[in-house]
Amino acid sequence: LRAALEKAKRGEGPCVGQWLEFPGYTLARTVAPLGADWVLVDTEHGNIDDRDMYLQVGAISSSGVSPIVRIAGSEPWMIKRALDCGAHAIMVPMCETPEQAQAIVRAAKYPSATWSQGIRGAGGMFAPANFNQNGREYLLSANDNVMVCVQIESRLAVENVEAIAAVEGIDMLFIGPNDLASSMGYVAFDHASISEVQEATARILNAGLDAGKYVGHFALSAEVAAAKVKQGFHFVNCGADIVAITAWMSTEMGKLKSL
Ligand code: 3PY
Q1: Which of the residues 8, 187, 191, 248 has an alpha carbon 20 to 30 A from that of 139?
Q2: 89: closest CA among 157, 174, 154?
């Protein structure tokens, strides 16, 4: 994942992914080989429980693709379980202050000489296989290899974004445009046409770039994703399983009825 992000930073093509809202090993197995650098398992809004998170993360990594888990909240135990099942990165929603960002980093790091504040517990050895490592290798390298991404998606988060971006151990800022618009008092789905949201988007992008961090943006189509890459974002998805299924099935059903 880091290699794909570094490539994106050098302007050699974006780091692209797919987004899972539905549960199931076979779904993850089907989606992972479709050309993505990463596939995200969404335990925040998806119908994905702890067991399915384990199944999907394993299925994605065994396809040679980086599994990312979006955590339901920012609780240390949730971060621990996502990392213990072998996520290459975590995405934590609604990070609004540098103090919250520091707490998220602490939860994602084993205590070590470099990360004396780390509180991640050292049990659960399912993760090493997803990094082609043995347990000892994983314990020694996870603090460097596992990536921490926080979502900037509220008015307060935008006010604090430079301070959040400066937190050591935060690798990426990711914009959730729907929640951002919603927190500013607009209808979430209208985000693309709201100038306040677009101004905040530019500020978040600049804060991330100035701090030397990766910056990502949520997108529901290739066109939107490509526009965000053009704007300077490194990391984008291009839809989600539920979007693909509903769009394809309703279009085909409509076609059939008109034949
Ligand atoms: C948002 O758009 O708010 C997101 O978090 C993407 O799911």
Answers
A1: 8
A2: 174
